[in-house]
Amino acid sequence: xxxxxxxxxxxxxxxxxxxxxxxxxxxxxxxxxxxxxxxxxxxxxxxxxxxxxxxxxxxxxxxxxxxxxxxxxxxxxxxxxxxxxxxxxxxxxxxxxxxxxxxxxxx
Length: 107
Prior knowledge:
PPR repeats lie at residues 5-39, 40-74. By secondary structure, this protein is mostly helical. It is built from six helices and no strands.
């Protein structure tokens, strides 16, 4: 990759996530952070989707919190949808229901 900025890394992360390549998505995201690049809200949609597909609930929850606290990402509906999917696919339906109840938008 000739231009290694946030946009190109986000495109790769999103592309791998869209095609179900969870491990590659997570690897790219961690390399992005290692290169001191700042992920944006779109990057995190790909990352959260990948964690959901890989069944890595705790890591997904950790990165959701880091979106808010460390990266100061403005949360949108898609971020919450990814988290509900993450919890539901792992059979954590009560937590998913509670998560829905805490969403700052109406469903």
